[in-house]
Specification:
CATH class of the largest domain: Alpha Beta
Radius of gyration: 21 Å
Number of domains: 2
Distance between the termini: 52 Å
Largest sheet: 7 strands, mixed
Structural class: alpha/beta
Strand content: 15-25%
Shape: globular
Bound molecules: S-adenosylmethionine
Amino acid sequence: MNDAQITGLLHQINDGHFVARALHVVAELGVADFVGADGAPVAHVAERVGAKPDLLARVVRLLASRGIFRLEGGLATGRIYHTPASERLATAHPTSFRPFVRNTATIRSWRLPEHMTHMVRTGQPAVGEGTMWSQLEASAEDGRLFDAAMTAKSHTQIAGLLNAYDFSGLGRVVDVGGGAGHLLRAILAANPAVHGILFDRPDVVAAAATLGADERLEFVGGSFFDDVPAGDATLLMEVLHDWSDEECVRILKTIRRRAEPRNRLLVVEADVGEGDGPNWGKLLDVIMMTLFAGRQRTRSEFEALFAASGYRLTEAIPTDDGSRVFVGMPV
Ligand SMILES: C[S@@+](CC[C@H](N)C(=O)[O-])C[C@H]1O[C@@H](n2cnc3c(N)ncnc32)[C@H](O)[C@@H]1O
């Protein structure tokens, strides 16, 4: 790399929060909803979302330089087209990512990275007073936006998990910290003999139950620090990364208390991988560190956590979306 390229790299990272903010702006305004399959004039989209055409076009131009939208024919007089990435920002897209971006864009989320220096120095997480979960419980609007964000980030993850793991022979699957029930509903849809229990905080489970009844799906509210119903498989997707090692052991021991010898534990987490290449796992690891003093864990780190909680790690199955399923059996 020459000096100019190095300066360019440093700018891209140092000022990358403006790229993130540009994404937040289009998600908040709903720009993708007004572009359509044949594209749309900037002026038309700007009018529909209540923005100034030339200013909106400059934000779109920045995103287009990263593959999100395409802008043709000038700024305010131009036309916006979709790319595969911008299509996923449309509200009606079956795997819409818009709720995840909108959740990150809230002041509640957006301010948290400011705490990273303090975190690195002291080990104290950003969530501060009370936990993030009690903050979400205090505002139904924030709580449901967070749940929708979790559903939105899970579409590709769920597809990867269903490809990688065979749930068909299981009688009862418990999804612990399962949020709106997106994962469990997908497992039940793909496996007609499976019954499911969605377990999460009471307000989350109550909201999930309003999304549709299914005679094979039961909703149980509670805390995984107190008691968790048993199942042939107990799933924890992106739950343990929110917690310190000590807290993870408490959660796993709660699950272990009711587990029978054949009841497996399935922990699904993004993989930090090996080597220096960028990936979502490495980024998510620092997000979890900053927010919760949590972390993404490697196979050997899960081996230690499982062993301290009465489980033996038997497999770490990679999925095609960059996650891993860490399988544990009671010992
Ligand atoms: C990061 S989200 C993951 C949601 C979902 N498993 C997914 O991956 O899309 C963590 C979940 O843990 C739940 N949670 C937090 N504290 C909990 C507790 N004490 N007992 C049960 N669930 C809890 C939250 O409500 C949230 O739904």
